[in-house]
TrEMBL record:
Keywords: Cytokine, Signal. One of its GO terms (cellular component) is extracellular space. The keyword Signal applies. The lineage of its organism: Eukaryota, Metazoa, Chordata, Craniata, Vertebrata. This is Chemokine interleukin-8-like domain-containing protein. Residues 27-91 form the Chemokine interleukin-8-like domain. Gene3D superfamilies: 2.40.50.40.
């Protein structure tokens, strides 16, 4: 008789541990394997997100979502990357937003900087 309550508690504990481990999973690598060192045309960018350095990825990553719904990474050290980081810090002060629309930053969307040799963001 005493075995049944202990078995139920054990099974519930195992299920709870499995759920908690899934909730805390963290990507084990950087999203951006080869960020672009050339700027994108502002008019082609819909929104962007910034991923801060973390334990398994030591660099800041800027992921652009283009109007074609494709995702591209840009080097945060180039001028356009610096501008996007400034906008991110200005608008996302409480770190609650996942993405920011480019229109919120107030950049000139008619700038014509051409980009070549871009690689898509790796999907997990």
């Amino acid at each position: 008789m005493a075995f049944l309550p202990h078995a139920v508690i054990f099974i519930l504990t195992v299920v709870l541990c499995i759920q908690q481990s899934d909730a805390q999973s963290v990507p084990d690598r950087c999203w951006c394997q080869n960020p672009s060192s050339k700027a994108f045309r502002w008019k082609n960018i819909e929104e962007f997100s910034v991923t801060a350095p973390k334990s398994r990825c030591k660099v800041t990553e800027i992921i652009l979502t283009l109007k074609t719904n494709s995702k591209r990474c840009i080097n945060p050290k180039i001028y356009q990357g610096e501008q996007l980081l400034e906008c991110w810090k200005r608008i996302n002060t409480e770190n609650k937003r996942a993405t920011i629309k480019l229109s919120e930053c107030g950049f000139n969307r008619n700038a014509t900087i051409k980009i070549e040799n871009t690689t898509p963001v790796n999907q997990l």
